[in-house]
Amino acid sequence: MMGVWRSLAMLILGAMATGAPAADMGKTLRITFQVAETGFDPVRIHDYYSGTVIETVYDSLLGYDYLARPSKLAPRAAELPQVTDGGRTYTFKIRKGILFTPDAAFKGKRRELVAEDFAYTIKRFLDPKNRSPYAFFFEGKILGLDDLAAEAKKSGRFDYDRKIPGFEIPDSHTLRIKLKDPDYTFSQILAFSQTSAVAREVIETYGEESNFHPVGTGPYMLDKYVRSSKIFLKANPDYRKETWDFKPGADPRDKDIVARMKGKQIPAIGNVEISIVEESQARMLAFENGETDLEYQLWDVSTRFMTEDNKLVPDFVKKGIRLDRIVDPEITYTYMNTLDKIGDQPNPVGGFTRERIALRRAIAMAYNLGDQIRIIRKNQSVKAEYPIPPGVTGHEPAWKNNIRHDPAGANALLERVGYKKGADGYRSQPDGTPLLIRYSTTPDERGRLFAELMKKSMDSIGVRIDIHIDKFPELLKAEKQCRLMVRGAAWIADYPDGDNFMQLLYGPNAYQSNNACYKSAEYDKLYEKSKLMPDGAERNKLYREMTKIMERDTPWIMNDSRYRNTLLHKQVVGYKKHPILHADWVYIDLDKRAK
Amino acid sequence: MSAITIPHEHEVSPGLWALAWRRLKADRIAMISLAIVAFFVAMMLASSLGLVAGDWSKEVGTNYATPTWFKDDVAPPPPPGTPEGKPQDDPTVQAEPHAEGKGAEDRKDESSVVDPLADVLKEVRTETANAVQAPVVARLETLPFGADKWGRDVLKKVIKGSETSIFVGLASAVVAVFLGTILGALAGFYGKWIDDVMNWFYNIFTSIPYLLLILAIAAVLNKKGMFTIILILGLTGWTGTFRLIRGEYLKHKEREYVRAADAIGASNTRRMFVHIFPNVSHVVLVQISILVVAFIKTEVILSFLGFGVPVDVVSWGSMLNEAQSEMILGKWWQLAAAGTTMAILVTAFSLFTDALRDALDPKLK
Question: Sign (positive/negative) of CA torsion A268, A272, A277, A278?
Answer without folding.
Answer: positive
